[in-house]
């Protein structure tokens, strides 16, 4: 019988380390697909829940929120770009000019889970923001990206207009925060094992194989 592992991947679509971690994890899942069944679900976390609709310029935001210098920010960008190249994810951080509110994106991701297209939509949202500089708080953009992920555009528009999944997003965010998750990415495997931070493809693959071969827990 093929062993199975469930993964809740807690992240935000404007988090570069989440983009790296998600890309590496999905590659690791592909590498073990012949031996292990993995159920991957993306869970919401807002880095900037109080961000206004117009967003904030990226450099100014990083300097204000984290106390970083321009040199720190430049070094961080170079590291992210290099890490992205290693896993095949393209960062164009000149196009990524602003940080935005992501509440609507998380609502749409929960709806996409229900429709069986969440992983596809997540990948498209990350690419749209980090590679193409698109605004994940703009509803017309979200509808277009949902259609690109194979979802019904009219249904996506209705979800966003109705406020659907708002309560579910807030409940999930509160659930993880109450359990001490205050930075992302974070992964919970089989409902109990926490892995924090962005790791390599090799790390994730080894972790999945070790879990699959571990004795069943009581």
Would you give an account of this structure?
This protein has 218 residues and is of the alpha+beta class. The chain is 52% helix and 13% strand. It has nine helices and six strands. The strands form two sheets. It has a four-stranded mixed beta sheet with strand order 2-1-5-6, with helices on both faces. A hairpin with a 3-residue loop joins strand 5 and strand 6 (193-196).
Largest sheet: 4 strands, mixed
- Secondary-structure-derived class: alpha+beta
What's the overall geometry?
globular
Looking across the biggest beta sheet, what order are the strands in?
2-1-5-6
H/E element sequence? EHEEHHEHHHHHEEH
In percent terms, what proportion of residues is strand?
5-15%
The N- and C-terminal alpha carbons lie at a distance of: 19 Å
The percentage helix is 40-55%
Low-pLDDT runs of 5+ residues are none
* Number of helical segments with 4 or more residues: 9
Mean pLDDT, as a whole number?
95
| Cα radius of gyration in angstroms | 17 Å
What is the count of β-strands?
6
Brief rundown of the structure:
The chain contains 9 helices and 6 strands; from the N terminus they run βαββααβαααααββα. The protein is an alpha+beta fold and about 220 residues long.
């Amino acid at each position: 019988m093929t062993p199975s592992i469930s993964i809740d991947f807690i992240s935000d679509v404007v988090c570069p380390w989440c983009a790296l971690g998600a890309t590496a994890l999905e590659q690791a899942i592909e590498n073990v697909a012949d031996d292990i069944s993995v159920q991957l679900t993306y869970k919401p976390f807002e880095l900037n829940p109080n961000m206004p609709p117009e967003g904030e310029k990226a450099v100014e935001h990083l300097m204000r929120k984290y106390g970083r210098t321009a040199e720190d920010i430049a070094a961080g960008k170079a590291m992210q770009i290099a890490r992205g190249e290693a896993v095949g994810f393209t960062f164009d951080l000149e196009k990524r000019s602003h940080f935005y509110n992501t509440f609507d994106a998380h609502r749409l991701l929960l709806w996409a889970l229900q429709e069986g297209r969440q992983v596809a939509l997540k990948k498209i949202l990350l690419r749209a923001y980090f590679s193409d500089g698109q605004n994940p708080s703009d509803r017309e953009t979200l509808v277009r990206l949902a259609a690109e992920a194979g979802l019904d555009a009219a249904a996506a528009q209705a979800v966003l207009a109705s406020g659907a999944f708002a309560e579910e997003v807030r409940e999930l965010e509160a659930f993880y925060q109450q359990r001490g998750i205050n930075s992302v990415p974070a992964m919970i495997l089989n409902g109990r094992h926490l892995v924090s931070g962005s790791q390599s493809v090799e790390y994730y693959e080894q972790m999945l194989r070790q879990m699959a071969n571990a004795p069943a827990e009581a």
